Amino acid sequence: MHRLLALPVFCLLLVAAARAGDAPSPASYASMIEAVAPGVVTVYTTKQAQGSRRMIMPFLEENTPGMRRRPESGQGSGVVVGADGVILTNNHVIDGADRIEVQLHGARGRVVATLVGADPKTDLAVLRIDAKGLPVIAFADSDRVRVGDLAFAIGNPFGVGHSVSMGIVSATGRGGVGIVDYEDFIQTDASINPGNSGGALVDSLGRLVGINTAIYSRGGGNIGIGFAVPANLAKRVKDQLLDGGKVVRGYLGVQIGELTPELARKFGGEAGTGALVGEVLDDGPAAKAGLVAGDVIVRADGRPVADPRQLRLQIAGVAPGSEITLTVLRDGREQDLRVTIGELPGDPVVAGGGQPGEPGRLGVTLQDLTPQIRQQAQVPARIQGALVTQVEDGSRAERAGLRPGMIITEVERRAVADASATVQQLRLASGDVLLRVWFEGANRWIVVGE
User: Fold this and answer.
1) Beta-sheet strands, E only, within 219-320
2) For the chain, N or C: smaller number of CB within 10 Å?
3) Cα–Cα distance between 311 and 315 in angstroms, integer?
4) Torsion angle (degrees, nearest 10) of CA 250, 256, 261, 267
5) Do residues 79 and 137 lie in contact, with contact meaning Cβ atoms separated by under 8 Å?
6) CA angle 396, 402, 403 (to 5 degrees)
7) According to the model, what pLDDT value does residue 186 have?
8) What is the per-residue pLDDT for 72?
9) pLDDT tens column, 383-423
10) According to the model, what pLDDT value does residue 84 have?
11) Angle made by CA atoms 361, 364, 370, in degrees to the nearest 5
């Protein structure tokens, strides 16, 4: 009896060994790491701890005088995604920095970096350094990443130096973490620690699958739950920041929620799937398409809606002006509605967020003129431009008299339509910069000196 039982087991072991031998795993990933590691850099930041004026709605200035200003330093990681000096990192690594420097892999010195643009909603930022022929890490298709794939986290944890840790992909499409507005994280147990932020998560072939962003921790150290922004999302954000200095997202104009079992019994649909419309905003794309409160959105352009978070991510990735089909469940019957997607109102944009002395750097934060801002500040429809929401202490802007609440309408006598256009014109300017601003019901000219 024992021999009869042992024989099939032995055969199974031989078969398993033969199958494993069809695609042997390498005994070491050293060659892959050696090829990829130069594409990961260390990012150093310096900023003043106190002394920034900011605007609090509705357009009041807040200042904290009397505080001793002291420099604060920070450190994170970054990924080279352009041979001409383009680097991808986390927004929280460089947020509020007065000076950004990059240390290339294997280099002793640091080079000054310019902030091209940042997207707080995904915690991503793009930097540029004056360099050519840098080693680049290629993007993988992160939509094809599967749970169980090998994952390698590369960065500079705690500032101890260039380090690599290995693990697997623990989950994909992870949301609800509460870190950023748009969450679609790859979760990994590869060790990620402070200083790894902005570094690379690569697969076994050395391709970039994500930008290491955060960890779940009770005491600040790694416990095997790390999160990375997926490469496909990071690439879309990077491309838009390089093209226009900001990220443009699709906008539907609805407030949506989960379809709980209790709500499903009232509105129909399958509990735990779809997105229940709680409110349709007036004059928004959804209202114009005929959506109403109580609709359950079950498909968007043929793709099943898993939950409100997934729908929000999908709509954000649709170019404004594009038409999509929403399938809704209303009164127990499905209906198809054609919707022309709008543009999500813009986020604040840092104007000239490079280094002190860089042409075009003013030291202000700008915001698009949304309908809400126009109404609160009583800005006439004829006024187009960018709202100043924050002015750095000691900056060129402060010395010139720029204040929160002013609206920049022209740069060097060129009209600007929004915050992104203003930033682009400022980058083209050099020396003293002539601005036309609208403030307290009147236009005035301001020259921002070097």
Assistant:
1) 226-230, 250-251, 254-257, 275-280, 296-300, 303-304
2) N
3) 6
4) -100
5) yes
6) 130
7) 95
8) 84
9) 999 999 888 887 888 888 899 999 999 998 889 988 888 88
10) 95
11) 125
User: Which ranges in 137-294 belong to alpha helices (H)?
Assistant: 231-244, 261-267, 285-289
* Confidence (pTM): 0.71
Task: Give CA–CA dist 305/314, Å, rounded.
Answer: 9
102, two tokens: 């990059």
User: Taking 90 as the threshold, does the pLDDT of residue 208 lie above it?
Assistant: yes
Q: What is the CATH number of domain 349-448?
A: 2.30.42.10
Cis amide prior to 58 (ω within 30 degrees): yes
Tell me the per-residue pLDDT of 32-72, one tens digit each, with 9 for 90 and over: 999 999 999 999 999 876 444 444 333 333 344 444 456 78
CA-wise closest residue to 409 among 390, 389, 428, 386 = 386
Q: Rounded distance, CA 167 to CA 352, Å?
A: 39
Cβ-based neighbour number of residue 252 at 10 Å: 30
Q: Is the dihedral of CA 247, 250, 255, 261 positive or negative?
A: negative
Catalytic residues, by residue number, are: 92, 123, 197
**CATH level 3 topology of 39-129:** Thrombin, subunit H (2.40.10)
CB 174, CB 227: distance < 8 Å: yes
Which CATH superfamily hosts domain 250-343? PDZ domain (2.30.42.10)
- Integer-rounded Cα Rg, in Å, for the chain is 25
pLDDT confidence tier of residue 262, bands split at 50, 70 and 90? confident
Q: Which strand (E) or helix (H) includes residue 340?
A: strand 333-340
